[in-house]
Amino acid sequence: MGIIGWIVLGLIAGIIAKALMPGKDPGGCIITMLLGVAGAFLGGWIGKTLFHTQLGTFFDLRTWGLAILGALVILVGYRLLFGGRSRRD
């Protein structure tokens, strides 16, 4: 999968992960895309380590599931680390 495929996959996976886990998270389109791309890498590692499966092509359902799973793990980690802090405006 090329760089454009990773960007599109990351953007859509990040949007889906944020929709599945709504709340106050920082960032707009770029942060959501980075969340999804990092989630795809993390999901690929989780899939390889736990389920003995690899990321497939762009249109493979397993690729999307692992990318969204990884993005959700990153969101949970972010909220555990920074969720309790309040911002002063």
Q: Could you explain the architecture of this structure?
A:
It is globular and about 35 Å long. The protein has 89 residues and is mainly α. The protein has one domain (3-80). Helix 2 (29-50) packs across helix 3. It has 3 helices and no strands.
Summarize the structure in short.
This protein is mainly α. Helices cover 70% and strands 0% of the residues.
Give the arrangement of secondary structure elements.
Blueprint: H1 3-20, H2 29-50, H3 61-82
Helix pairs in contact: 1-2, 1-3, 2-3
Distance between the termini: 42 Å
Number of strands: 0
Q: Which structural category do the helix and sheet elements fall into? A: mainly alpha
Helix content: 55-70%
- Number of helical runs? 3
Count of the separate structural domains: 1
The amount of beta strand, in percent, is: under 5%
Average residue pLDDT? 79
Q: What is the C-alpha radius of gyration, as a whole number of Å?
A: 13 Å
